[in-house]
Amino acid sequence: MTTNGGFEPVFCTIVPPHVLDKLAQAEDSALSGPARRSLEHDAFQRTKRRLTTVVGAPSVAAPAGAAADQPHRTIYDARHTQDLPGTKVREEGSEPGSDATVNRAYAGLGATFELYLKAYGRHSIDGNGLPLDATVHFGEGYDNAFWNGEQMVFGDGDGQVFLDFTLPVDVIGHELTHGVTQHTANLEYFGQSGALNESVSDVFGSLIKQYTLGQTAAEADWLIGAGLLAPHVHGTALRSMKAPGTAYDDPNLGKDPQPATMEHYVRTGRDNGGVHINSGIPNHAFYLVATAIGGHSWEKAGQIWYDVLTGGDLKQDALFADFATLTVKAARERYGAGDELQAVQKAWEQVGVRTL
């Protein structure tokens, strides 16, 4: 159940469709083949997600007697099939095995759980101790990772453009945060509300990485998916919150299309109205807020964003201006008319989003 009274889990991937579309057109079949198969996998999972939403997904609860302040993780291995969840290979409390991908997925789920608990007092994705399930080794050379409304799924990548999707912890945090949004503001996955949905996941994905590394705002790289691209790819990550539009510029991937300000807002019917593209604008606003405040970004800047996401006033079809206005309100209510409020107001002004 969400604060808006609805419950519409969506299918959300870390690699935007426009990136896979570009790869699918490559002359080299080693690049185009995996991209095309990944797009087919995504289309199938997206349809399955819609059907589950209509029919109703089975409810999942924490084990009886389980501690609310501890994660309840289960990792499954799809063994390169598309069957979910797959074979159970690790569960909560068990020792690491020989499969590094399994171990990274387990650790990433734990890092996400810890950030939400320690920083915001949230007990798992739904706030009520929801078990965290993940499947690794999904498909053959699958170039994506996704949250399907119930669990995490990771591909191994094609090895040519994308590496193992469990490598960047912010990818794990990003996808699980789609679950947090699903259980709170339930932002519609289209247009500006969809871009906000994506941006919230980037924000908290980055915060989870920063929390894990103990970094301040000044020390963070503000990249989403750093380490995911193969060494010969001309790029550093999937997205940059510090400098949207600069994450990659590669003959096979194309150029990062994200805008940093409303002046370059992209109007398109693709990718649900450009949700992975225009998210660069609120992403950059958060970066500006966090670096202006300084210190650990999850403490003040992250708290303001979390207050908006969970406060009950954010509408499902919110526009950037609606979200921005609520961040100003949240900053004022929590910190008064000080540096935090000024940082929030100035950041939205810099990216060209008006606040009321």
Task: Give a written overview of the molecule.
The strands form three sheets. A six-stranded mixed beta sheet has the order 1-5-6-4-2-3, covered by helices on one side. The chain has helices at 17-24, 29-55, 100-120, 169-182, 191-213, 271-274, 280-293, 301-310, 320-335, 339-350, and strands spanning 12-13, 73-77, 87-91, 132-136, 145-147, 152-154, 223-224, 239-240, 249-250, 254-255. α1 (17-24) runs antiparallel to α2, α4 packs across α5 and α8 crosses α9. A hairpin with a 4-residue loop joins β5 (145-147) and β6 (152-154). The protein contains ten helices and ten strands. By secondary structure, it is an alpha+beta fold.
Topology:
Blueprint: E1 12-13, H1 17-24, H2 29-55, E2 73-77, E3 87-91, H3 100-120, E4 132-136, E5 145-147, E6 152-154, H4 169-182, H5 191-213, E7 223-224, E8 239-240, E9 249-250, E10 254-255, H6 271-274, H7 280-293, H8 301-310, H9 320-335, H10 339-350
Parallel strand pairs: 2-4, 4-6
Antiparallel strand pairs: 1-5, 2-3, 5-6, 7-8, 9-10
Helix pairs in contact: 1-2, 3-4, 4-5, 5-7, 7-10, 8-9, 9-10
